[in-house]
Amino acid sequence: MERCEALVIGLGAMGAATVYQLAKAGVNVVGIDRHHPPHTFGSSHGDTRITRLSVGEGAQYVPIVRNSHRIWRELEALSGESLFEQTGLLVLTSSPDFDPADETDFTLRTIALAQTYGIEHEVLDAAQIRQRFPQFAQVRDDAIGYFEPEGGFVRPERCIDVQLRLAEQRGATLYKGETVTHISSDEQGVTVTTDQRTVRADKLVVTAGNWAGGLLGAPFDRLLSVYRQKLFWFETEPDAELVGHSPTFIFTHGPDDDFYGFPALPGEGSLKVATAQYHSASTPETLDRTVSAEEEREMYEQRVQGRIAGLTDRVVKSAVCAYTVTPDRHFIIDEHPRLQHTLVVSACSGHGFKHSAALGEAFAQWCLRGKSELDLSLFSVGRFEQECQSL
Ligand SMILES: Cc1cc2nc3c(=O)[nH]c(=O)nc-3n(C[C@H](O)[C@H](O)[C@H](O)COP(=O)(O)OP(=O)(O)OC[C@H]3O[C@@H](n4cnc5c(N)ncnc54)[C@H](O)[C@@H]3O)c2cc1C
């Protein structure tokens, strides 16, 4: 039986960051993935992921993303690859039901957090938004905008690839195309069985993304739901000023009418936009991985047409990617209630990539010292006590 100090199951966003940080710390680490990351079967593909310091999802995320921004730059220096593009980020609410006193509004929450944490930003009214960003139409007179110069996007496939390569250079052993089928533990450590081998480890980190519920069983199978998401790259018109002139953005135009997007990337002739849906659950095995012509047309008519100048209705590329979501849409990061020496990481409810570099560092600290410098206690599985008890 092979032995190692730390084992990581799943080498996507979270797992790649974890094996890299463990290898960097000199730990004898093994990583296992059922596919060949970066790949298109999980939650970490599609060219771009938004990152922002004022994380409207909650104050607990601000220290995490700050660390990630530091680590992306370290990884760029080590690899020579461009990973983090600081394009500026525009968050906008332009909605008929906008209430300036509504503390749940995403733009207002983002502004409040930026003020509390001293994050550089500008608050923009409708006239300023129209003047600064004429490519975005349908800005109501009572619209409110938040602009964060340090926000932008990271390139998920490249981030994963770079971290896995650097991990291997530092001695990590990575098994790709190999599926973990069983995990057991005792006081001394953990035994992980794959379709090809058995490995014994002192510590185990499970970052299995969409598959975590199936692999870990109760209570995780009940707490983690998989939701199909669609990504669209619409063709840019030849003279559109969207390349290098446009920020990364998150727009709310009404209840159930929000979407986000990225600047058009040089040489690609397209701009990526997407929505998020949480009403129709799926599984990694049954997920429909193709986007239909009907879905493309719907996206154009409902979100793009009349809202972003310089795009045609032609979709040059589309993709399906899946969120794995907890009941409160926050992360689960906690020790497994029954398996000893095992840390469980949920795929982070559709907003985890920006935090992954820093979380990898924190998980490596957990393997080494039993705790991390970042306070991750708000992500405990115990907050779902009721759900856990009913199992
Ligand atoms: C469409 C979409 C848009 C998003 N946008 C953003 C954004 O703008 N900003 C942001 O911060 N976040 C965003 N996210 C969320 C973010 O991408 C995810 O939180 C993150 O990528 C999850 O990483 P992960 O490592 O948990 O999962 P994954 O990257 O999917 O990795 C899990 C890995 O585990 C492997 N695995 C599973 N089971 C086994 C097994 N039994 N044996 C071996 N290997 C196994 C899989 O093959 C896979 O490689 C988005 C997600 C999606 C889907």
UniProtKB/TrEMBL annotation:
Its cofactor is FAD. It holds the Pfam family DAO. This is N-methyl-L-tryptophan oxidase. Keywords: FAD, Flavoprotein, Oxidoreductase. Residues 6-366 form the FAD dependent oxidoreductase domain. SUPFAM superfamilies: FAD-linked reductases, C-terminal domain, FAD/NAD(P)-binding domain. GO terms for molecular function: N-methyl-L-amino-acid oxidase activity. Its EC number is 1.5.3.2. It comes from the Bacteria.
